Amino acid sequence: MPKYLVQASYTPEGAKGLLTEGGSGRRAASEQAVASCGGTLEAMYFAYGDADLYCIVDFPDRLSMAAVAMAVRASGAVQSKAIPLLAVEEIDEAAKRSKSVEFRSPGS
Prior knowledge:
InterPro entries: GYD/TTHA1554. The protein is of the alpha+beta class. It contains 3 helices and 4 strands; from the N terminus they run E-H-E-E-H-E-H. The radius of gyration is 17 Å and the shape is elongated.
């Protein structure tokens, strides 16, 4: 299943909701949203810095990830981005395939 790192930041309204229901409430809501599209929430961490929240999620396909991302962003409570994650074995396969890529670098 495709795996993603999701970075999210709460809007002021979203932060008010977090203060009301706490981290456990947001984890339950996140698990429900991800599960509704056949995915699983592998890990969830709150943080200081550019992002308020980091999650690792698994989905059966890319469209499921897109559906959840659109629904969450449409709420207006969260700004987020999803970064596809590749396993070591997937990178090994990509490295093998890269040998057959025909590419001319600029100026060559």
